[in-house]
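for the recovery benchmark. tokens below, seq after
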């Protein structure tokens, strides 16, 4: 809990989170690592995330950057309580808008399946690169927002529709398109629909996994502006994953750099950009300059 105790207003903190795909063997530990790769040559087990620590502060955007396969999405899905970590802890603290602790920290990994789902529906929101992962493509925009709100315990149809309309306004979608199907929207608009759905239950933490990676540069810039605007307006805490340091640079105050499942560097984004310590980070930085 060392890093965790040094930050005062954390809402979510990972402690030694680890996820392997495969049975593992006694060689995994020595034959995998940031410089050796994530796949054990003896047993084939992939260490997707190894001993990940971070503390997410109220209202901040923490960036996670790394090449494809470095474990970013696995980490996201562990935080989203969909992929179960095989070891480690994931602490959550409910805080009010002033950052005051409302409840004692709880380890989300100790929750049973039902409690995990409830937590995910009420306190988390996630946006994916591919809209069909975040949206039900057979439901309208309003229907998608309703789906999340019903799972979060909302029951009043009028209030749900009102909420959908508010969120479309926030994400700069024409509210008269509330009854349109997702496949009638462009790529950039679909990301706005996903963001609307993810934000609907007023989550404590918004998870963004490569949300602009599939978009044209100009569309990407406008979606990034929207995310900035939402963070400024709602002071929502975000975990932002991208393989593109340029995206991280624009949004994240602090950044973790992942390679082969390991965090090889972390700190203030500005400092990482100005003075990268790890050779891998230096390579990433030189590619955005
Ligand atoms: N369900 C799975 N089964 C086996 N290996 C997986 C699974 N999901 C991810 N992996 C492996 O874990 C590693 C990390 O993947 P991922 O978290 O998707 O990385 P990123 O999002 O950074 O591209 C990769 O080597 C990937 O092949
Ligand atoms: Mg990924
Ligand atoms: Zn092994």
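predicted aa per position
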């Amino acid at each position: 809990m060392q890093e965790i105790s040094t930050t005062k207003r954390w809402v979510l903190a990972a402690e030694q989170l680890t996820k392997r795909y495969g049975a593992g063997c006694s060689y995994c530990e020595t034959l995998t690592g940031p410089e050796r790769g994530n796949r054990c040559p003896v047993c084939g087990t992939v260490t997707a995330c190894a001993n990940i620590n971070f503390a997410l502060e109220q209202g901040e955007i923490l960036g996670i950057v790394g090449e494809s396969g470095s474990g970013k999405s696995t980490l996201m899905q562990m935080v989203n309580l969909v992929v179960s970590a095989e070891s480690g802890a994931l602490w959550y603290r409910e805080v009010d808008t002033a950052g005051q602790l409302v409840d004692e920290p709880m380890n989300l990994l100790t929750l049973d399946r039902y409690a995990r789902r409830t937590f995910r529906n009420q306190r988390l929101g996630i946006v994916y690169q591919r809209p069909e992962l975040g949206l039900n493509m057979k439901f309208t925009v309003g229907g998608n927002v309703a789906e999340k709100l019903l799972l979060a315990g909302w029951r009043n149809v009028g209030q749900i529709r009102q909420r959908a309309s508010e969120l479309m306004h926030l994400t700069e979608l024409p509210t008269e398109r509330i009854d349109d199907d997702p496949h009638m929207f462009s790529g950039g608009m679909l990301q706005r629909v996903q963001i609307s759905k993810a934000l609907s239950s007023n989550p404590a933490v918004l998870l963004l996994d490569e949300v602009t990676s599939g978009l044209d540069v100009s569309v990407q810039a406008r979606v990034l502006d929207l995310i900035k605007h939402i963070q400024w307006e709602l002071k929502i805490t975000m975990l932002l994953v991208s393989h593109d340091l340029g995206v991280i640079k624009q949004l994240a105050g602090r950044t973790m750099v992942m390679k082969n499942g390991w965090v090889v560097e972390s700190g203030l984004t500005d400092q990482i950009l100005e003075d990268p310590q790890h050779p891998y980070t230096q390579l990433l930085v030189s590619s955005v300059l």
